Amino acid sequence: MKRLTQLFKLGCILLLAVILCNFLISYKAKNKTFDNIKNLPTNKVGLILGAGKITSNGYVNLYYKYRLEAAYLLWKNNKIDKILISGDNSRKDYDEPSTFKSDLIQLGVPETDIYLDYAGFRTLDSVVRAKKIFGLESMTIISQKFHNERAIYLAENFNLNATAFNAKDVSKRYGFKTKIREYLARTKAVIDVIINKQPKYLGPKVEIS
After folding, report:
1. Beta bridge partners of 47
2. What's the pTM value of the predicted model, to 2 decimals?
3. Whole-angstrom distance, CA of residue 83 vs CA of residue 116
4. How far is Cα 158 from Cα 131, in angstroms, rounded to an integer?
5. What is the pLDDT of the chain when averaged over all its residues?
6. What count of other Cβ atoms lies within 10 Å of the Cβ of residue 46?
């Protein structure tokens, strides 16, 4: 019985920690994410946070689709001049940045306005590499709101000035598992900041001209 009580207390503490981390990240990102393009400040570079184009059941990933559309909208309306795509390219048959690039070019974005970061394995990697590899001091992050908030929290803690444009979100049913994982991802983000976690890879600097 005593052991059960201890486990219950531990569970309550962990749950409270998750809730507090979620609140902290939303609070830190307050007034820095935008749904309306008219209110969004201009920036030289927009950072797309990667996503796979095709889901495991063979359908187009709506997170991908809406981020792609949002990035194109910002570029077309001169809210950003260049697009940095950061995503996973850990396997030969999986290349998030190049897929985004191909689709952006099809929409009409010149190849010269697109830059790729193949080592954006995590949001932290994408944000920190934007500063340390691509030399950014400010940027517009492009993803869904829940993701943008976490990215802004990380950016602030690595001394990077960031705002974000919220791509269209998916339905609650479609994104249920992702939203649950987000609570854990936010907790990990806070821990990463506390321990000063760094990207898996850095490397040579790239100038976005």
Report:
1. 84, 141
2. 0.93
3. 8
4. 8
5. 94
6. 23
